[in-house]
Design a protein that fits this description.
The structure holds 2 protein chains of 2 kinds.
Chain A: H1 3-20, E1 30-35, H2 43-57, E2 62-67, H3 73-82, E3 90-93, H4 97-102, H5 110-116, E4 130-131, E5 134-135, E6 138-144, E7 146-150, H6 151-157, H7 165-175, E8 188-190, H8 198-211, H9 228-242, H10 252-260, E9 264-269, H11 273-278, E10 286-289, E11 298-305, H12 312-326, H13 328-337, H14 350-355, H15 359-371, H16 385-401, H17 406-420
Parallel strand pairs in A: 1-2, 8-9
Antiparallel strand pairs in A: 3-11, 4-5, 6-11, 7-9, 7-10
Helix pairs in contact in A: 1-3, 2-12, 2-13, 8-9, 8-16, 9-17, 16-17
Chain B: H1 2-5, H2 14-44, H3 63-69, H4 72-104, H5 110-122, H6 125-135, H7 142-150, H8 163-191, H9 195-203, H10 208-237, H11 240-245, H12 257-267, H13 271-294
Classes of the chains: A alpha+beta, B mainly alpha.
């Protein structure tokens, strides 16, 4: 569908950046910044404010900000780095930067952090940026999930807002209905993307696994899949999908839209669900509450990094940009503009809490997830995460399609995961 | 002396002008096709994750090919590709030939009928895939609604979560997108058959089936042969339909060689291995083309 368009766009971006790699007029520097968040309401506005601040502090120099769609992002960035023309300001998802770091393409930011005196203590998700004993990035977002529900659907079904997995399952079953009796379910208890890639698939089922006490690996990176907790987690996910409590084969965006329009009763999602709820047909019926899973799913989202092969002068300019983004002032504005939890523990959240009614929910969820070191990227699989997640996705799909015993599937996944390491 | 040597107007130098005019095109082809091909071939003999153009060359190895030929995923991708090639090519030919014969007849509304036959060809692949994704949507799609209304099934079919269903969704989308090409090519071939052939056969008492069997098909063979090769190559290399509809899943039921190449290169960052898959795919395409063009593509008359 969008592939041809994406490729053209990716090629255009690559061509632009190659062209921009040629010497510019003396004095004025142009930093290339590629991001998928450019046109996103809220977070895109925040990036624009960081750029504006940087340009004000560097008169004459500019930042050329280009958007690349998320689905074509890894291809584009790989091509740019492979061709020797990486963007100066490197913006990557937290599940993909490891492959770039592993290839030696990212600068060790440790000395820059030290020189600038940037305090990263308590910085949510920053541990993930440690790669082979070096700091290769600064975490830009580590979020905790929030729980949206449709008050009217729950009332009609006679169920209370769930607070545990058992209540969640009961509510999901009670609200999955064929409303007009045509044999087709048109209202779902909950909603998950089951069509996307492996990473998204793991994120979708992670709440059920973590609540059951399951983990893919332990703190040392050893595989811990073949456990009773994982079997319980897989059983829960199988129940949700097999009993059609979620619509099947939809993208994450389509599922969120269904929730916003009142076709889904319960939805666990990231902070971005609030702005989508506000645009839906059922916005007056949608409410937010604490996630009925313990611990709540949290996750690192995206990082800022610096290419290792650019000139020292440019590195300084890029670091200035990173420092602005990581400053208390901009971490504070991140909370209000992006309506999301900033990673910095020193950000002033007073304004955000006053403006965004559910902000406390997000903060609590983020803290709980961070305390339990929850992330969809298991320790030990950072570099091979795409292969790992694809393997997990296929084995879980096999469990659902062939109606396999979750215990057998856990054992198979465990063996395959060990083989990948 | 040297100017005379370069005088392209001289009869003995005229062919130089031809080469000179061809040079930009040849250089362009070399730059955008031949060079990447050689880079890919070179990468396929290196154990390399993410490739960098200016990086020093890694040692020569056959490991990628060894891994490839012992990988069940590779053989599965070959099998899926062959299944798709056979199913899609056969159906495209059946529908394409049928519609071409239909709109070759004179009847009221023929122009409109020709337009409808060719319409899928004009629709961009992107739009076609979106339309079919909606039609086969597992929760709210038209096809499930239709199947339940007609009584073919009492339950929703998960078109993209069941391996067999997903394969047929991909195949049907490709057939819909691909048959007009066969139809247009065949129609052009049909219009080039002299009416005298049919008149003479009628005089000899040949039935419609006999005229089709002994006149239409043999005369069309050159067109059908070339069309078959082009359709096979299209199915072999098509990426966007599968990528968007199923991404090769579920359980690799729709993972063709092109999808496997993409996944290895940009999903798992195994550029060397991905290059090996790409080279093997190229060889298979060349062999298939030679086999198809070498046989059955000559006119009988």
């Amino acid at each position: 569908m969008k592939t041809i368009g994406k490729r053209i766009a990716a090629s255009a971006v690559a061509a632009m950046l190659v062209g921009a790699a040629l010497p510019t007029s003396a004095g004025a520097e142009v930093l290339k910044f590629v991001s998928w968040q450019k046109d996103e309401k809220g977070v895109g506005d925040w990036w624009a404010s960081v750029i504006k601040e940087w340009e004000a502090k560097h008169p004459g120099d500019t930042i050329e900000w280009t958007k690349v769609e998320r689905s074509a992002y890894a291809d584009t960035m790989t091509t740019l780095f492979a061709g020797g023309t990486p963007p100066d300001i490197v913006h990557l998802a937290s599940f993909e930067f490891q492959a770039f770091a592993n290839n030696g393409w990212l600068e060790d930011l440790g000395p820059w952090v030290e020189k600038a005196g940037l305090d990263l203590n308590g910085w949510s998700g920053q541990d993930i940026c440690k790669f082979q004993e070096t700091t290769v990035c600064i975490m830009m977002l580590y979020y905790g999930t929030i729980f949206g529900y449709n008050e009217e659907i729950l009332k009609q079904a006679g169920v209370a807002v769930p607070k545990t997995y058992a209540e969640f399952l009961a509510a999901a079953k009670a609200t999955t209905k064929d409303l007009n009796g045509d044999g087709i379910v048109d209202q779902f208890g909950t909603g998950h993307e089951t069509k996307g890639g492996g990473g998204q698939y793991i994120a979708e089922m992670a709440s059920y696994l973590f609540d059951a006490g399951a983990r893919f690996t332990n703190a040392e990176g050893e595989v811990t899949i073949d456990t009773p907790e994982m079997v319980e987690g897989l059983t829960r996910w199988k129940t949700i999908v097999k009993e059609n409590l979620t619509p099947r084969d939809l993208s994450a965006g389509e599922v969120r839209k269904l929730f916003a329009d009142g076709k889904i009763a319960l939805k666990v999602d990231g902070p971005w669900i609030y702005s989508i709820m506000q645009q839906g047909a059922a916005k007056d019926k949608l409410k937010l509450a604490s996630v009925p899973f313990d611990p709540p799913l949290g996750g690192s989202s995206n990082v800022l990094a610096m290419p290792s092969e650019i000139s020292d002068e440019k590195k300084q300019l890029v670091w200035d940009f990173i420092a602005i983004a990581a400053s208390e002032k901009f971490q504070t504005s991140f909370a209000t503009l992006a309506a999301s939890t900033p990673p910095s523990p020193r950000a002033d959240l007073t304004d955000a809490k006053a403006k965004i009614p559910h902000f406390d929910l997000m903060v609590e969820s983020q803290k709980a997830a961070a305390e339990h070191k929850i992330d969809r990227i298991p320790i030990g699989f950072e570099v091979q995460f795409n292969e790992f997640s694809k393997m997990i996705q296929e084995e879980v799909q096999r469990m659902i399609i062939e109606d396999l015993d979750p215990a057998t599937v856990a054992k198979t996944m465990h063996e395959k995961a060990e083989a990948l390491q | 002396m040297s100017l005379r040597f370069l005088d392209l107007a001289r009869p003995s130098r005229q062919h130089w002008l031809g080469y000179l005019l061809l040079l930009p095109a040849v250089a362009l082809v070399a730059l955008i096709i031949v060079y990447p091909l050689f880079v890919s071939l070179d990468l396929s003999f290196q154990k390399i994750g993410m490739a960098t153009l200016n990086a020093p060359r890694r040692p020569f190895t056959l490991e990628n090919y060894g891994k490839l030929f012992t990988s069940p995923d590779f053989w599965n991708a070959c099998w899926v590709t062959i299944k798709l090639v056979v199913v899609v090519s056969a159906a495209c030919f059946a529908v394409g030939l049928g519609t071409a014969l239909l709109v070759n007849n004179r009847f009221k509304g023929r122009t409109l009928a020709r337009l409808f036959v060719a319409l899928p060809w004009a629709v961009p692949e992107v739009i076609a895939v979106v339309i079919f994704a909606w039609i086969f949507d597992s929760s709210f799609g038209l096809m499930n609604w239709l199947f339940i209304k007609v009584g073919i099934t009492s339950q929703m079919i998960n078109w993209f979560s069941e391996p067999t269903a997903a394969f047929w969704v991909v195949a049907i989308t490709m057939i819909w997108k691909g048959y007009p090409f066969v139809s247009i090519m065949t129609l052009a071939g049909l219009q080039s058959i002299p009416e005298d052939f049919y008149n003479a056969a009628k005089v000899d008492g040949a039935s419609a089936l006999q005229r089709f069997r002994y006149i239409t098909i043999p005369v069309l063979m050159p067109v059908l042969g070339v069309t078959l090769v082009l359709v096979i190559l299209w199915v072999f290399r098509d990426f966007s339909i599968i990528k968007v509809l199923t991404d090769g899943g579920p359980l690799k039921a729709t993972q063709t060689l092109s999808i496997m190449t993409y996944d290895q290169a940009f999903g798992f960052f195994n550029m060397g291995y991905a290059s090996a898959i790409g080279i093997v795919t190229l060889v298979l395409c060349v062999v298939a083309s030679l086999l198809m063009l070498g046989r059955k593509s000559q006119a009988m008359y």
